[in-house]
Each structure stands twice: as structure tokens, then as C-alpha cells.
């Protein structure tokens, strides 16, 4: 078996703009902390719409180093809870707006890729939410009924229709037509280069230590070797909000897992929907998923999430090995010709999860002219770009039509994740993962 590259995503790190560490005292009109898709989309829109503004992007490492460069490249619609739960929690009108906003977010990323001329393996293709477990079948039925009641174009697929597309024996599915797959690191790098071309300055290897209101106006951001004074600040820091003491509620860091395989045979690739660019996601919580790569291999993820806080390095390494091993077995079960396919890359990344499944995009209480973006709950490829664009429009006093959505809010619900509650949360996540893996 070909040895796998542990901890290294399947995506090559793109060419990036110069990003020296921040030293001394720096000033800017706008400081964007976080060089992932959300922060870069915000900086790009600001530089595009207000070319005279002095914009600085700062990151603890650099563009594409975090979740935006470690995703699995599924670009599909979803914002917040499943559509039937969204109807119960927010009402039909809001649930419909939420879904349509997520579809527009996918379209916006496709448009962005075309504008930037990104060589990122972009492949338009439908996304199938499917199941072969009774619990998943009930969930699909509830979602299908909700989509139909809201007049949304998400057709139901029979087992035969799913198998005709991906050749895996699933019982039923839902078809999201507006979807694609791409290399997330390439998109992030291209966005960083486009920002730099418009005059945005970058500082890397500069973790934010603290932020406070400025003496006169704006904010002062403190870094290991300097400080930055900015009239406005955007903190696209996801689950790092807790370490900074930001009052944005609980955005929980969860570790998720992915792997990539060597190219498979043409027969297996076609049978798994590769030539049409399909991606398949199991509808169960933490459900596994796969999608084809342009080179003939597969990318897969899901099945396990880990609460990394409080775990020592040996236990975290063991958890990663178990997650990767199960995911490799699941991939090899998809088609007879995958029984011995080599795994070429295994990696993990951190997502930000909230108690109600909704992101947090809003002003930070107690810090005038400071905004926070985080908590996309595993759906960040499209939503991150949309959130960054929304915050940029707000800073430019150019509000988007239609008014705020449920995730345009300053805080997420608080969750008891410290002290005695943390083992209980870890036990719950482990049990949910075992149930999903057993059904898949």
C-alpha cells in the first residue's frame, strides 16, 4: 500500500502574497483578522468597492492554513439546521429565505471562481443527500415534505435513481442541483492574491492576543511583536473567539477528518459519478460523504467528530487514527474495485459549531466598529464567502436587500462545555458518531 501523507491535505499550498510578521505599531482603516475565505472575501469586497481604504489582513499563520485550506471541497447549499427543523424553529418564510440564501452563496462562489480565473479543479455537479438507514430515511422524508411545502426545487430520488448516478446501494436521496466541487486551498490562495493586487497588505505568523477599544476611536489589536490601530476591525477567527474572550456565545471547536485516494479505475470512477461530478453525503448526523477528484481519485470525510479541547496529544493522535481507519474502510466498501485502493492523504481540520447550528455574523458587544464571523458548522465553503461579503457591505453602509437572516446576530447560544460538562459532551459526540458509523 502506498504510504499516506498524514496531516497533509490533498491540496497543494498555492502561491501567496508576501506576509511578513507584524512588528511595531501599524495603522489601517480596516483590520481583518483571519486569512481564510471569510476574512479574504471581506477584504476583497472592501478593496473592490472602496479602493481608497487602507486594509490589512493578519493571520496567526497565513492564507489557507486553517479550515479554508483543509476542507474537502464540497460546495453545496445548506445554512443552519436541516430544512424541516428550520421550519419548526424559524417559521416557513424564514426557512425558505435561509435555503435560498445558501443557494445564492454557492452561485456567488462559482461567479468568484470565474472572475478570479481560479485553476482550482472546479467541477459543477449536483450534490446528493442520501441514506441507507431507517433513521436517515425518516429524515429525508421530513426534509422532502418541507422542501415541497416551501416550493423549493429539491427533488426526491428513489434508490434506483441514486444508484443510477453514483452506483452505491442507497435507499433514497434528495438532489441539490446548485452545487460543485473544488480545491478550497486554491480558491483561498487566489482570493489572497486578488486582495494583494488591489493594495491589501498582509501580515502572517502573527496571532491576535487581545483586542480593546482605541483611546480615541476604533480598536487596538495586540500581537506578539506589535500592535495595530484600526478604525474598523473584522474578526474572522471562528472558534478562536473563546481564547480571545469575545462575547459571541459558544462557538465550539470540533475536529473533523478527511482523506484522499489514489486514482481508481475508469470503470469505478464512472460508476461512482466521477465523470458527472456528483458528490454524495449521507443524511445522518456526522454522515460520511465522498466526491470525485479530477485526477480520478476520491475525497471522503465525515463519520467522526472529536472535541479536541482537554485531550492530550496521545489521545488526540489515537482518535485521529481511529477516524481515518474507519473512513478508509467505508471508502473501500463503496465499490468492489476500491477494496484495496491506496489512501494517499489523511488530514484533519477544525470547524466551529454552535448550539443551534447557525453561524454568528454580527457586531461584537462592547467593541464599537468590530465585527465577528464564525460558526459555519461544517458548511463554510459557500457561507464563509457570503458572510465576508455581507460584513464588507455593512462596513460600506451598503446593506443587502431582504434584511437580516437568522445568522446575522451578535451571539450564539451558550453551551456548558467546561468543567464537568465537557466529558458529557464528548460522550454524546462519541455515541452519535458510533450510531452513524454503525448505520453506514
From TrEMBL:
Domain of life according to the entry: Bacteria
Domain FAD dependent oxidoreductase intervals: 29-393
InterPro entries attached to this UniProt entry: FAD-dep_OxRdtase, FAD/NAD-bd_sf
Annotated Gene3D superfamilies: D-Amino Acid Oxidase, subunit A, domain 2 (3.30.9.10), FAD/NAD(P)-binding domain (3.50.50.60)
GO cellular component: cytoplasm
Protein name: FAD-binding oxidoreductase
Amino acid at each position: 500500500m502506498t504510504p499516506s501523507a498524514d496531516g497533509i491535505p490533498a491540496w497543494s499550498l498555492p502561491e501567496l502574497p508576501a506576509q511578513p510578521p507584524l512588528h511595531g505599531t501599524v495603522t489601517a482603516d480596516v483590520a481583518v483578522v483571519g486569512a481564510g475565505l471569510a476574512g479574504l472575501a471581506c477584504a476583497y469586497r472592501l478593496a473592490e468597492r472602496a479602493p481608497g481604504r487602507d486594509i490589512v489582513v493578519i493571520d496567526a499563520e497565513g492564507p489557507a492554513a486553517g479550515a479554508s485550506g483543509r476542507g474537502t471541497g464540497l460546495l453545496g447549499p445548506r445554512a443552519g439546521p436541516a430544512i424541516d427543523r428550520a421550519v419548526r424553529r424559524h417559521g416557513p418564510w424564514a426557512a425558505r429565505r435561509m435555503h435560498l440564501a445558501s443557494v445564492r452563496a454557492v452561485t456567488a462562489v462559482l461567479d468568484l471562481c470565474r472572475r478570479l480565473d481560479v485553476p482550482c479543479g472546479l467541477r459543477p455537479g449536483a450534490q446528493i443527500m442520501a441514506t441507507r438507514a431507517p433513521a436517515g430515511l425518516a429524515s429525508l422524508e421530513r426534509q422532502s415534505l418541507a422542501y415541497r411545502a416551501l416550493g423549493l426545487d429539491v427533488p426526491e430520488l428513489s434508490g434506483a435513481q441514486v444508484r443510477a448516478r453514483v452506483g452505491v446501494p442507497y435507499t433514497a436521496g434528495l438532489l441539490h442541483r446548485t452545487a460543485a466541487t473544488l480545491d478550497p486551498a486554491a480558491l483561498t490562495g487566489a482570493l489572497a492574491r486578488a486582495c494583494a493586487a488591489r493594495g491589501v497588505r498582509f501580515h502572517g505568523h502573527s496571532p491576535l492576543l487581545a483586542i480593546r477599544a482605541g483611546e480615541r476611536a476604533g480598536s487596538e489589536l495586540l500581537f506578539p511583536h506589535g500592535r495595530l490601530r484600526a478604525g474598523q476591525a473584522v474578526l474572522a477567527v471562528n472558534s478562536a473567539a473563546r481564547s480571545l474572550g469575545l462575547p459571541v456565545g459558544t462557538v465550539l471547536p470540533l475536529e473533523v477528518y478527511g482523506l484522499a485516494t489514489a486514482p481508481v479505475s475508469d470503470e469505478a470512477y464512472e460508476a461512482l459519478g466521477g465523470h458527472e461530478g456528483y458528490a454524495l453525503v449521507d443524511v445522518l448526523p456526522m454522515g460520511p460523504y465522498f466526491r470525485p477528484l479530477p485526477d480520478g481519485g476520491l475525497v471522503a470525510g465525515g463519520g467522526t467528530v472529536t472535541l479536541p479541547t482537554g485531550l492530550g496529544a496521545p489521545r488526540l493522535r489515537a482518535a485521529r487514527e481511529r477516524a481515518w481507519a474507519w473512513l478508509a474502510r467505508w471508502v473501500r466498501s463503496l465499490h468492489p474495485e476500491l477494496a484495496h485502493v491506496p489512501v494517499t492523504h489523511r488530514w484533519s481540520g477544525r470547524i466551529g459549531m454552535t448550539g443551534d447550528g447557525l453561524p454568528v455574523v454580527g457586531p461584537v458587544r462592547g467593541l464599537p466598529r468590530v465585527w465577528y464571523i464564525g460558526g459555519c458548522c461544517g458548511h463554510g465553503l459557500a457561507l464563509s464567502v457570503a458572510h465576508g461579503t455581507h460584513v464588507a457591505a455593512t462596513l460600506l453602509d451598503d446593506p443587502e436587500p431582504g434584511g437580516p437572516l437568522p445568522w446575522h446576530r451578535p451571539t450564539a447560544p451558550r453551551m456548558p462545555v467546561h468543567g464537568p460538562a465537557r466529558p458529557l459532551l464528548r460522550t454524546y459526540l462519541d455515541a452519535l458518531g458510533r450510531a452513524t458509523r454503525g448505520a453506514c
